[in-house]
Specification:
This protein is an alpha/beta fold. The chain folds into 2 domains: 18-85, no CATH class; 164-408, no CATH class. The chain has 15 helices and 13 strands. The strands form 5 sheets. Strands 8-7-5-9-10 form a 5-stranded mixed sheet, with helices on both faces. Strands 1-4 form a two-stranded antiparallel sheet. It has a two-stranded antiparallel ribbon with strand order 2-3. The chain starts with 17 loop residues before the first helix and ends in a 15-residue tail after the last strand. The model is unreliable at 5-15 and 359-366 (pLDDT under 50).
């Protein structure tokens, strides 16, 4: 039989995804173009530099050896241009060097992979199964991250988290703080199945991770320990407003540690709690009625909508009405703060959105994830997410709050000058 009649079958495990390959080729071309543009800009900035004989001092000098960078679509081959400084030898510490910002010299993994690895941990994937998991997600060539390499990464993250936990907070101040408890899919080594998270807004409007620990979501003691630890490390000035779910033990702890701080209940959690006490047929209408409260332009209008809800649902659905009415003041606290901040203050969204992929899981992995490892993984996720957090709208209003300026219905209250006392004519 002629060899021409033999059809070569694709072996299992060697199937190539044409779409992924197209994406990789596109990524390779875009990366090459970006690096070339960067080196051209670099050479342009040094175009005026000449050697003693009048030639260009900084010039192109071929490429470094090709290497692969692991990305979210698998490995991508890259070639970095080389730049030569003709007036200095390789050992000269003052020679002009080129290092593209998009492609650091020792980069082996993109940030997407750095974020993916902690997620896999929190999903209950063991170190030994990482290669298989990465191959399934990124393609067969992604298995280059061995168990030992993953182990070294994990050890580094543990050290980074330990250092972060001991950082000095005496120079820090937060105007707002959001609090929530995050449930993990991976089973922790003890009964505490929750990560307690605090995110704060600085006077400059930037959101930062303030603190977190393992604990019980509704345990006031665990929240108290976290807040007191922050205070011991220098966070002496309490926030002006805290935002959280009403079911958290956080409120009792915050009332003890920060007694002067205002409370704002999360409207997303409250809406879910109220609707859970209503039949499904009533929920769409009730949801619209609740929205009319927290979307009202003034507190007075919100109060009217609040009263209307209570009056409408109390006769037949008293539990739903009581669930809403018990937190009335805390649900409407945001009206005493700048209107530009309302959308940030009505919910715990800064935390909810960050952990959308890892929270509220019910399936447990067979093995246990140590508390220390879980906290380090959460730390890495938050560290990556923090870089993309946007500043608060109307951040110019925050210094006013720090100085004690009051707001009514979101508008700054301008104090009127007191009338001068009339003077009497001398006798």
């Amino acid at each position: 039989m002629s060899k021409d009649n033999i059809i070569k079958l694709i072996q299992p495990g060697n199937v190539e995804d044409q779409l992924t390959e197209i994406l990789r080729n596109g990524a390779r071309c875009l990366l090459a173009q970006a690096v070339e543009a960067e080196v051209a800009d670099f050479l342009g900035k040094h175009a005026d530099l000449k050697t003693e004989d009048g030639h260009q001092r900084v010039v192109r000098h071929g490429h470094l050896p090709e290497r692969e960078v692991m990305t979210g679509i698998g490995p991508v081959a890259v070639r970095q241009p080389r730049v030569r400084d003709r007036e200095a030898d390789a050992a000269d510490p003052d020679r002009i060097r080129f290092s593209p910002s998009i492609l650091p010299p020792y980069m082996r993994r993109s940030k997407s992979i750095e974020t993916l690895l902690p997620i896999l941990y929190l999903k209950g994937i063991s170190t030994g199964d990482f290669s298989e998991a990465l191959a399934a997600l990124l393609g067969k060539d992604a298995a280059g991250l061995s168990a030992s390499a993953i182990g070294r990464l994990k050890d580094g993250w543990l050290d980074e988290h330990t250092a972060w936990q001991k950082r000095d907070l005496s120079a820090k101040r937060y105007v707002y703080i959001w609090a929530d408890g995050i449930h993990l899919q991976a089973r922790l080594e003890d009964e505490k199945q929750c990560i307690l998270v605090l995110i704060g807004a600085t006077p400059e409007g930037r959101k930062e991770l303030v603190g977190f620990t393992d604990g019980a979501r509704e345990s006031a003691q665990d929240w108290r320990d976290l807040l007191l630890e922050l205070k011991r490390r220098g966070l002496d000035v309490p926030p002006q407003l805290t935002i959280a779910d009403g079911a958290l033990g956080f409120w009792k702890a915050a009332g003890e540690v920060w007694p002067k701080t205002r409370e704002q209940r999360c409207w997303v959690h409250k809406t879910a709690n109220v609707l859970a006490k209503l039949p499904k047929s009533q929920q769409p209408k009730a949801k619209r009625a609740l929205q009319e409260i927290w979307m009202a332009e003034t507190k007075a209008v919100a109060e009217l909508a609040f009263d209307a809800f209570i009056e409408s649902y109390t006769p037949k659905y008293e539990k739903a009405a009581d669930c809403l009415s018990k937190d009335r003041d805390a649900l409407l606290a945001f009206y005493d703060f700048p209107a530009e901040h309302w959308k940030h203050l009505r919910t715990t969204n800064p935390i909810e959105s960050t952990f959308a992929t890892v929270r509220h899981r019910t399936i447990r992995s067979k093995g246990c994830l140590s508390n220390r490892t879980a906290l380090a993984m959460v730390f890495k996720l938050l560290e990556a997410a923090q870089k993309s957090w946007r500043r608060l709208d109307g951040h110019n209003q925050l210094p006013k709050l720090v100085l004690g300026v009051t707001f009514n219905n979101g508008i700054e209250v301008i104090a009127k000058p007191t009338d001068p006392q009339p003077t009497t004519a001398a006798a």
